[in-house]
């Protein structure tokens, strides 16, 4: 290793330590505000007289707003800058999340979940694109996995917080599930203001980097960073949005998110169906699969980055999730079922790092921002289909077995589609 490589590795550690922990916290807040509905689901549905189909539709309609506003939100980030845009949308979704505590009926419930999705739409794709300004392609998968390990962290934290909140008595005339929304929604408002002070728009605005470090980072990023600061021209944008590879990736992501969010947003109720605990105990047990989410994301992404291989890592991870869902559907024992759900969590979230390394391997330049947003937005419609169909199947079934097999089928399709994708060369 020459002196230049040593300097770059030191710089990479500096950038990682400065940005990823902060982005990690922001994503915990984002994801917790997305899934807090899963912990509140049983008592909220009882108080507001929602059946499984109504709850599943409301949980999933989040992703319609998410899809519709994903691309324009990410393009707005390009024009306005990451700092101001991320700050603005965090404050908005924080207020929407808090207001979830006061929904009086199903129509308001649907409207608030849609608005929450619209407000959050620019956050994740914006952060994925933002990471490409700091990390090379071969480092991007691991950077994404570290950032997205906030998902299982939110699951663990959400389970622990929800178990405490749901166990407390009513306060100020509000039942515990309402306090769950108020307590988990408020941090987005506060941290949205902190973003204005902490997050640079890119390396050029980072006051904590010297001129030499900025030059070294720019030189190592090389072609990855060409034109990233520019909004794509209309011709280039349309070419990207009609690229067959972009739509294949969107279809693949759809199949993954269908299983991912069908699993995530129904997990407490799936566990409750076999464990038969109260709301607080169920929330606590729901934190266990989240530990395996973290292991799957980090271990599989690390090996995928080490080998430079993406498709087979993705397919193998999805196949593990399929196995877990099938076992959970046929074995009623609560211990075996929970272990199978842990395997499912490991596999589903193990797909994340390899998947998000694929778009940046196929695409480059300013148009990559729109392509990433499109893949994320269209793919996340699976986040509507999964919770809604799982709820609809459960509404007409005595248990969750058929719902689990439905999710397994979607993930199996994703595994097949992953190995059918053209092999992408990931630059060194």
Please characterize this protein's 3D structure:
- The protein has helices at 3-48, 52-80, 82-99, 106-120, 123-131, 137-148, 150-165, 176-198, 211-221, 234-241, 244-275, 279-285, 287-307, 311-330, 334-350, 352-362, 367-379, 382-395, 401-420.
- The protein is globular.
- The protein has one domain (3-420): Growth Hormone, Chain: A, CATH 1.20.1250.20.
- It contains 19 helices and no strands.
- It is mostly helical.
- Residues 225-229 have low confidence and may be disordered.
- α2 runs antiparallel to α17.
Named CATH topology: Growth Hormone, Chain: A
Helix content: over 70%
Quaternary organisation:
single chain
Could you give the count of β-strands?
A: 0
Strand content: under 5%
Contiguous uncertain segments of 5+ residues? 225-229
Q: Please report the first level of CATH classification, the CATH class.
A: Mainly Alpha
What string gives the helices and strands in order?
Answer: HHHHHHHHHHHHHHHHHHH
* CATH architecture grouping: Up-down Bundle
Average predicted local confidence, pLDDT: 84
Query: What is the 3D form?
Result: globular
The separation of the N and C termini measures: 15 Å
**Largest sheet properties:** none
Classification by helices and strands: mainly alpha
Radius of gyration equals: 21 Å
- Count of DSSP-assigned helices: 19
How many domain modules?
1
